[in-house]
Every structure is written in structure tokens, then in C-alpha cells.
Predict the structure.
Amino acid sequence: MGRFIILGLALAALWLLLSGYFDVPMLLSLGAISVVFTVIVSARAGMLDEEGAPLRMIPRITGYWIWLASEIGKANVVVAREALAIKPRLSPKMFKVPMAQRTAAGKVTFANSITLTPGTVSVHVEEDHIVVHALTEALADEPAIADMGARVARTEGTRA
């Protein structure tokens, strides 16, 4: 029941934030109906379990997002420098990084974090490692990506 309520509140807040309609009763009613319908469909589809809504990650995820934003910024500088260079030093590389995450949410968070970082892409996810493509040698920093994986593992509650 808690996940049902939290999802409803989160969707209502998102709807209000994105729509901007706070004073039109008909639109507020339609928004409320769409939120209730979405929550009911999510519950009937079995999406409100621990894997679909990992509530225990919420307190720790904010710090991870802040750290990830700084890493994305650093990688943007590297990619922009290469994109604007007269003679870019591109050296594509594929490599494997071990994964310490136990849950599907942790593995997806790790793979998406790699792909969100400019110049790197998650190519293939296996049970115990992930294959990553990097645009340059500087971006193919295996220890840094392994550190990202360890941070995700700590965020999901796994000790890495």
C-alpha cells in the first residue's frame, strides 16, 4: 500500500510540475483521474514490487545523482575538447568492467550511468560484467568506471 501511495504522490507532483495548471478545476480533475488510472494499472501489472519501485534506494540515490552529474560534466569537457580539436585523438576501445550489483535495478542504474556519461556506452550486460565502448583512451578509465559500479552497489545496499 505504501508503494501505491508514493507512486500516486510522485505522479501527481510530476503532473503538476510539468502541466503548470494549478487553478483550472477541469484540468486538475483530468490530471487526478490519469494519475489514479496509472497507479491502478501499475499495481495490476505487478510493477509496484521491490524491483519495480526500490524504495530503500531513495535516501542514498540523491548523493549518487550529484556525483554522477559532476562526472557527466567532466566527460563533457573531454568529448567537447576532442570534437573541437583540429586533429582529434580518437582511440575507440571496448573493455569489460565487473559488476557488483545484485538487483536488476542496480544493474540497470550502472549501465545507464555509463551510457549517460558522454563518450561511453554500455554495449552488453552479462551476469557479472558489462561491456563498455569508450571514445578515447581518457574515457576508457576502467578503474573510474569500476568505482562508478561500486557507488551504485553501495546505493542499492550491496557492499562493494
About this structure: The chain has two domains: 2-44, 57-156.
